Amino acid sequence: MFKFFLDYSGGKEKNGRGPVTDELIRLVLDSGHSSNISVFVLAVALIVMVRPIIAPVVWQGWLAGMFLLFLLKFGAIFCYHGKKKNSEAGIQTCVRAYVFLIFLTGVMWGLGVLLFFKHNAIIEQMAVFFIIAGLTAGAIPILSPLRKLYYAYIAGPLLPFVCLLLHYGGQYYTIMASIMVLYTLMLINSATRVQQSLITSLEMSFANEALVADLRQASEEGEALNLELITENDRRKATEDELVQARDAAEAASRAKDEFLANMSHEIRTPMNGILGTLQLLQDTKMDGVQSDYVKIAYSSAESLLSILNDILDFSKIAARKMVLEDIPFSLQALVQDLVTLLTSQAQAKNVALVAEIDPRVPEMLLGDPTRMRQVLINFMTNGIKFTEQGEVRVVVQCLSAFASRVMLRIEVRDTGIGISEKKQHDLFQSFTQADGSTTRKYGGTGLGLAIVRQLVLLMGGKIGVESVPGQGSVFWCELDFPVAALGAQDEEKKAQAPQAEGVLQGHVLLVEDNKVNQLVAGKMLAGMGLTVDLAENGEKALAALAENRYDLVLMDCQMPVLDGYEATRAFRSREVQGEKRLPIIAMTANAMEGDRRQCLEAGMDDYLAKPVKKELLRKLLGQWLGPVSS
């Protein structure tokens, strides 16, 4: 019976147990503590719910049996861990005992189904149904390494369940029996897939260990056997693809961490919206000089924190391979000049000159992602300013080659700063790496900026590098190939980039936002722009307000209780009268992943603004959708 449950038989394990089987057993035993406790808690929960209709002696006896199995399984687990470094025979005994106890636990659950699933006791039936469903589904990650043991375990409760439902008969019970059969097949399929994935991962891990050992041995023998070294090098080249695949598999395991970072960034951006928004509102009030300085310091600190959050979010998007670049017309000359204007005050504060030098052959409009290009340039330029105490930071755009439809550009940011040693240059574009990594370093930063810039340049199909001499300055450069924008696209982009007139906006706006702080901040900003604002705290109330009133624009949060922004937008678009002027709906959300913008547009929204919301950007966006402003 024990060998039946050890159903893995691959490679060197055909005639007995091997490392893969031992690892599968270890996975099951190591998760035994938590699973054992969970099973007993579910047993107690089941008794609490069915006790009113069951004779005391029945449920007390069943619970006593489950408690005894609970203690015995813990004993088998402690025995297994205690015998690990001792005799193989002792380990085998502990594992056999644990497997048998798991099987008995499944049988006891089957007995519980027969005892507690009473005819016409709907509430108690539902309790049994949901607990058994949760029990069998929750056992997949715990018992699927030994999938046949899992099959036996879930057969204990599920087979009696199906038989009992068919025995009762009737349409209701027949449907439930059919659902249980389909559910059982789904569980079997899921457990099989999980085990196959585990086995593949383990085989790859052990194969890699063996490969590393072989390479080490070949290296040691290479000093005396040059011919064998040549052969070994040839063999290593042949296995390069396998090593790349193994590396990719390891990187896939880290993407879950990157998804976590993205989710945490979303959660932090929501309160950050309240902090930055409130500080922006406070800047518009009357304050004395000291108060104004305090607000500027707080706003600058919040901006720095937001910059770090954005770096982490970009890093996680790149690592999760969810970074999608835009392909729209933009002016590189205008982008460089805007950044020079933006950063001039920062450079002047350090008595550093900031200048731009652009090749006249550079086309006026290019096709690409201006946001990411701006991110690359601003990182190069701010680093140059940060690490330069005197002299200048020069932005140079050179045209390497130009054709009618494409242009190859080299963009350099040269500084006269502290420079970087040759040893540090090799690691400079790696994540969390800085030229000075000591705890007494003069300059701050997370070490993520250049790593993100490198990935962005590579995504654009370009090259990136650094040239530096300590004490004489550095040159950060990238070479990129851009399509030249068509004449019509250039005209449209110029029109889109035309500055908005100063003044107040006019219109009636519906703000759909569940967070009270964000309601206050956004409402004050909108009111300060001259707009009339109505509030709705979820999508359902927003639909009601849209049915009763006429609005010029809707600012829609995406994640809300009752009805979220996506569903509310779809519902409104479905009943919007065809032929009438389309009501602009703008997403205003803390979701900042690349796919979130696309999801908003697919739901029927017209534009997208990520939180924390800056008042200037909000006003510019509203000006585009509400039309001309009053003077």
Briefly characterize the structure:
With 631 residues, the protein is an alpha/beta fold. The protein contains 22 helices and twelve strands.
Jot down its keywords.
631 residues; alpha/beta; Heat Shock Protein 90; 4 domains; 5-stranded mixed sheet; 22 helices; globular
Report on the structure:
By secondary structure, the chain is of the alpha/beta class. It has four domains: 2-207, no CATH class; 255-319, Signal transduction histidine kinase, dimerisation/phosphotransfer (DHp) domain (Helix Hairpins), CATH 1.10.287.130; 332-496, Histidine kinase-like ATPase, C-terminal domain (Heat Shock Protein 90, 2-Layer Sandwich), CATH 3.30.565.10; 508-626, Response regulator (Rossmann fold, 3-Layer(aba) Sandwich). The protein has helices at residues 2-5, 19-30, 32-50, 56-83, 88-116, 122-138, 140-143, 147-168, 170-222, 226-238, 240-283, 289-319, 332-348, 370-386, 422-425, 449-459, 487-496, 516-528, 539-548, 565-575, 594-602, 615-626; strands spanning 328-330, 352-358, 366-368, 391-402, 406-415, 463-469, 473-483, 508-512, 532-536, 553-556, 585-589, 607-610. The strands form three sheets. A five-stranded mixed beta sheet has the order 2-4-5-7-6. A five-stranded parallel beta sheet has the order 9-8-10-11-12, sandwiched between helices. Strand 10, helix 20 (565-575) and strand 11 (585-589) form a beta-alpha-beta unit. The protein starts with a helix and ends in a 5-residue tail after the last helix. The model is unreliable at 437-442 (pLDDT under 50).
